[in-house]
Design brief:
Layout: H1 2-13, E1 19-24, H2 26-32, H3 51-68, E2 75-81, E3 85-87, H4 93-111, E4 118-122, E5 126-129, E6 132-133, H5 153-165, E7 170-175, H6 182-201, E8 206-209, E9 231-233, E10 240-242, H7 244-255
Parallel strand pairs: 1-2, 2-4, 3-5, 4-7, 7-8
Antiparallel strand pairs: 5-6, 9-10
Helix pairs in contact: 1-3, 2-3, 2-4, 4-5, 5-6, 6-7
């Protein structure tokens, strides 16, 4: 069925499109299929993935890529929500890191070996203890989603994806922060871009960076409260108001260079 869907979509992408994502965040889809509450996705206590669904998603991805390969020059891959899992150093934490992290993250990065590119979608990190994932410490800055403020998430995701995929070209297809404090959005994005540049300097092939999100959006697990956007909008009038971060980010794009985080 997914093959037929890709065949139906092929006329849309065969002209003027260079990169196509087959499946967005298959690791999250497999966890949703596990039947757990979606509210904790990409945070402390991720649901148990349905491994049968994971296998089906991989088969669908590969069949989709076969169809897309009919278009000369079109690059295809899937995007993975990398988690930046880290052992907390306690005895047994390294073993639990492998047990917990592999079916939620690493397996999907390994499965991308041989693809044209791999999308990395990164927002935060989670520490793993001997009994499993740990909640964010009380003294750590958090975002409106309750995740740790961690600009290095993109760089961590790139390094993990590069190693596990065997050097597949990478793209940051999502990175951002849910915050009402726009100065922290600028600081987070600046930190992410600096980390990405360090990866490039270390020889990792990074094709591009996509910020999440242009507009404040609706999040399935938490509604309109987590504001990820560079642009605010009025839900009654639909008027759009660019935030200082939008002007800053536009300046970075125009200069094709990193600016000081508060140079707007």
């Amino acid at each position: 069925m997914f093959t037929r869907y890709t065949e139906a979509a092929l006329p849309v992408v065969q002209d003027g499109v260079r990169y196509v994502c087959t499946i967005n965040e298959p690791n999250i889809a497999a966890m949703l299929a596990g039947g757990e509450d979606a509210a904790n996705l990409v945070a402390y206590g991720l649901p148990n993935p349905d491994l049968g669904v994971a296998d089906a998603l991989l088969a669908s991805h590969r069949r989709s890529r076969d169809v897309l390969s009919q278009v000369s020059g079109l690059q295809s891959g899937w995007t993975v929500a990398t988690q930046a899992f880290r052992a907390n150093g306690d005895p047994g934490s390294e073993e639990m890191l492998r047990e917990y992290g592999y079916p939620r993250d690493d397996w999907y990065l390994e499965a991308a070996a041989g693809d044209d590119f791999l999308g990395v979608q990164a927002y935060t990190r989670t520490f793993i203890g001997p009994s499993g994932p740990l909640p964010v410490a009380d003294d750590v800055e958090t975002t409106l989603t309750g995740w740790e403020f961690y600009p290095e998430a993109s760089a961590d995701g790139l390094r993990s994806a590069w190693a596990l995929s065997g050097g597949v070209p990478l793209m940051i297809t999502e990175n951002g922060i849910a915050t009402a404090d726009d100065t922290r959005r600028i600081a987070s994005t600046q930190g992410a871009l600096e980390g990405i540049h360090r990866c490039i300097e270390d020889g990792i092939q990074v094709l591009g960076y996509q910020h999440w999100s242009l507009l404040d959006n609706y999040e399935w697990a938490s509604g309109f409260r987590p504001t990820f956007g560079l642009v605010a909008w009025d839900r009654e009038t639909f008027e759009r108001t660019p935030k200082p971060s939008a002007r800053w980010y536009g300046g970075v794009a125009q200069a094709n260079a990193l600016w000081h985080p508060y140079s707007i």
